[in-house]
Specification:
Blueprint (H helix, E strand, L loop, with lengths): L1 E7 L5 H7 L10 E6 L10 E5 L6 H8 L4 E6 L11 H7 L3 H10 L2 E4 L2 H8 L5 E3 L21 E6 L10 H11 L4 E6 L11 E4 L4 H7 L4 E4 L5 H4 L4 H8 L4 E4 L4 H4 L6 E4 L5 H9 L1 H15 L8 H8 L5
Parallel strand pairs: 1-2, 1-3, 3-4, 4-5, 5-6, 7-8, 7-10, 8-9, 10-11, 11-12
Helix pairs in contact: 6-11, 9-12
Length: 320
């Protein structure tokens, strides 16, 4: 039996994708998994899986030096190159970059969420494995809330994405003038600056399960500015939208361009003046329905049970 400890460094929702979803599905005949904040007793575990461990940590260094512990460092966003425009996160992580890099260097294995991060982090530590972002197994089949109201354009994301929205609110306002019946819904952060008036609903983020179950709009948008950090971002938002039958218009940046099959399960925006035409294209019921079906099919490839074996292989030390 391999004893695995999932080291949570905060209560942020990112842990659900990397620890909260896969750990309960580990084969119980081979793994005994525990999740939480660390204490000295984690030295007794066979595997310690530390997610987003930033800054100095003597305990982590001791674990990495212990031949009886497999120390795995996990990263789903590149905390070594946070955009300065993302001011709150930059203030937290930028001063810690040197120590965070040392944490990565010291690990036995580094796991990341996609191929772009894998290439970057192999320059720091050669033992890098991709563990993809996943969604709950049942998510594509959960009942979708019936919305008999008008066509709704939506976005979902954190309170730290303002830098990805230059010109987006204005594009939505232009679309709103062309389609007077359209409505808008923002989950988590709302960067429309009130210019859509009472046609836009803001839904606060509570917890991942509530968010996943209640996520509902007809057209999803996923803007990203083209920065080093964003080129390594995961396709989580696109998978979540797709699992709820929502086709996406996304910036053609980084890994977003690998998940969207342009014109099939969504549209990729190459220039700012394309947002409104693609919104208008998806306003057509037939086009939107066909793309929604393809987005839903795409999302099914990312359920946790399809990928949990990758976590198991890493914990057994059988990859790398």
């Amino acid at each position: 039996m391999i004893r695995v400890f999932g080291w949570q460094t905060s209560t942020a929702a990112e842990h659900d994708f990397r620890i909260g979803l896969p750990f309960p599905l580990l084969d119980p005949t081979r793994f005994e998994a525990t999740v939480g904040a660390p204490g000295q007793d984690i030295r007794d575990y066979d595997v310690v899986f530390a997610h987003r461990l930033a800054g100095p940590s003597p305990l982590w260094r001791d674990l990495c030096a212990d031949p009886n512990v497999l120390a795995i460092y996990d990263m789903d966003d590149d905390l070594l190159c946070v955009d300065p425009e993302n001011a709150s996160c930059y203030r937290i992580f930028h001063p810690l970059e040197a120590e965070t890099r040392r944490n990565v260097e010291a690990a036995d294995i580094v796991t990341v969420s996609g191929p772009v991060l894998a290439e970057r982090y192999r320059a720091i530590n050669p033992n890098v494995v991709v563990l993809p972002q996943v969604i709950p197994d049942g998510m594509p089949d959960w009942p979708i809330l019936v919305d008999e109201g008008p066509l709704t354009v939506g976005w979902a994301g954190s309170l730290h994405k303002r830098q990805d929205w230059p010109g987006i609110a204005e594009a939505l306002a232009n679309y709103a003038r062309l389609v007077p019946e359209a409505r808008f819904r923002m989950y988590g952060g709302d960067y429309t600056r009130g210019i859509l008036g009472d046609r836009c609903d803001a839904v606060p983020f509570t917890d991942p399960m509530t968010y996943w179950q209640n996520l509902r709009f007809d057209i999803g948008i996923a803007p990203l500015t083209d920065t080093t950090f964003n080129q390594g971002k995961t396709v989580t938002k696109l998978i979540e939208y797709g699992a709820r039958g929502i086709p996406t218009i996304a910036s053609a940046v980084g890994q977003y361009a690998t998940w969207i099959d342009h014109g099939v399960n969504g549209f990729l925006v190459e220039s700012p003046d394309e947002w409104v035409p693609y919104l208008l294209a998806l306003t057509d019921d037939g086009t939107r329905t066909a793309m929604a079906e393809q987005a839903w099919k795409s999302s099914r490839e990312w359920t946790v049970s399809r990928h949990v074996d990758k976590w198991e292989s890493v914990f057994e030390g059988s990859v790398g």
